[in-house]
């Protein structure tokens, strides 16, 4: 096999694995496209086009106008909450681009990431989401009984969801079962002590289930113009949310039959003691979610800090100054800026810290109030659900704007040569279109040395020649690395 073609297969294999890994772990379409183009351009391939859909990554290379195009397609696996793998793909990409590791080592490392065992065992994952649920109930002013019930219910629904996923049951049914389980636990709490606000259990569990969905990436794709990917992610989010609605509505029927009141009470008033509880709850939310989503241990204190700041800003602004929509939007904006700064500083994906800032902002109480209202007054229930939708859009828009501004500011203060800032831009398929999309940038120098952009070729890499396509009769494919069970194989077009 010609040496050039061997290298082309290896470059595409690395780019595909990284692109699919990012897409499957919640990265936005612009980030996936930019990362794949960084890999191919650093390998010497200039005429490369990348297309990202809801569940596929397509890469095509054209050596010159007279050459035969080389195209590969790979489908992404089911979406997961595994930020350890997302961080691993980011590290591999930046180590390869900077020239710290050669192509073959990067390729094998990317192959091994999906095959590695999760960073945290299942009991620890369940415990993490249980702590997250309990912290959420504390954030809403829960009593000790409600706090214990919310912690137990969050752990149970997480364990049930993991079990159903391993049994290959669609996630819709797992969401529905979780919603029903949450209401069931709330009913049990109401029967034990009718004076406590048992609805907090349901609200906390709803937020636990909603936090891991692709709604943030979907709105980011929609805001920046990646409509195809956004449409798929929004439909996925909608269907899984409908599953929660079905389960909660079923649980409400059970509550009505038993005569238990699980209505939502008014928000807790702001005082010094409630601010203290908000701080404690914010730390618990971030730590719990970080453990459940396999966030590397070195990042756990930081994700907890982002969650604390987000919850405190939202709590103070919504209670003292602003309407709820604007309060959470501003809190999301602050979280987005902090996430980018931390990601670049800690050499970690900004998405890790973004999700920490989202947790306290999810409008779980409005969603639940809207579901309750649909049974009595359709207009009132629909209005609450519409308000929840407004808040969800405000959260995503604030996060995207915060990341967008920070991604433009942070590079001027960066100490390292390789960026960890996210790529947030209108649709592009090639490096040239990306430059047009982002606008021209001045080259910066620090201490007399030019800052290296991620798309710059490293010294040991050379461009592939067009002659590699002239004789294709005796070509053999590389031995494909092992795939995860159930993952679709590559589709290669090389006529």
Automatic annotation (TrEMBL):
List each copy of the Threonine/Serine exporter ThrE domain by range. Answer: 287-403
Q: Where is the composition biased (Acidic residues)?
A: 470-482
State the annotated membrane topology for this chain: Multi-pass membrane protein
Entry-linked Pfam families: ThrE, ThrE_2
Region Disordered, as annotated, extends over 439-495
Highest taxon listed in the record's lineage? Bacteria
Coarsely, its chief localization is: membrane
- Keyword entries, A-Z: Cell membrane, Membrane, Transmembrane, Transmembrane helix
Say yes or no: keyword Transmembrane present. Answer: yes
In terms of InterPro entries, this protein maps to: ThrE-like_N (IPR010619), ThrE_2 (IPR024528), ThrE_Dicarb/AminoAcid_Exp (IPR050539)
TM spans (from-to): 122-140, 146-165, 172-192, 198-219, 268-292, 299-318, 324-343, 350-371, 391-410
Where in or outside the cell it occurs: the entry states:
Cell membrane
Which residue ranges have biased composition labelled Basic and acidic residues?
A: 484-495
The chain positions of domain Threonine/serine exporter-like N-terminal read 13-253
Provide the family line: Belongs to the ThrE exporter (TC 2.A.79) family.
- According to UniProt, the name of this protein is Uncharacterized membrane protein YjjP (DUF1212 family)
